[in-house]
Amino acid sequence: MSTLPPCPACSSAFTYEDGELLVCPECAHEWSANAALNPDHKVWRDANGTELQDGDTVTVIKDLKVKGSSSVVKVGTKVKNIRLVDGDHDIDCKIDGIGQMGLKTEFVKKA
């Protein structure tokens, strides 16, 4: 009898351990064993899957239009000292020349 938790994506009971990850053979979903033990702990990941922390420096990977303005955040813009938050936009930050802004983790990579 397995004591591993079911898959959070498809609820399959056939999960197995692969190093530090838990894997579902039915839907190929992988997740951290630590996250399974502590479901209240949210993990933010960049576009490459690297875990992000408060205070990290990230680089924008796509031109982003600023809503309500004609400004654009260009590819390669470095954003220092990010703050991770819950919500639609996962990152609160200040970008030079633009000001306070919210970004999505899918449009940045860890620098």
Automatic annotation (TrEMBL):
<feature type="domain" description="Protein YjdM N-terminal">
    <location>
        <begin position="3"/>
        <end position="32"/>
    </location>
</feature>
<protein>
    <submittedName>
        <fullName>Alkylphosphonate utilization protein</fullName>
    </submittedName>
</protein>
<feature type="domain" description="Protein YjdM C-terminal">
    <location>
        <begin position="45"/>
        <end position="111"/>
    </location>
</feature>
<dbReference type="Pfam" id="PF03831">
    <property type="entry name" value="YjdM"/>
</dbReference>
<dbReference type="InterPro" id="IPR004624">
    <property type="entry name" value="YjdM"/>
</dbReference>
<dbReference type="InterPro" id="IPR013987">
    <property type="entry name" value="YjdM_N"/>
</dbReference>
<comment type="similarity">
    <text>Belongs to the YjdM family.</text>
</comment>
<dbReference type="Pfam" id="PF08274">
    <property type="entry name" value="Zn_Ribbon_YjdM"/>
</dbReference>
<dbReference type="InterPro" id="IPR013988">
    <property type="entry name" value="YjdM_C"/>
</dbReference>
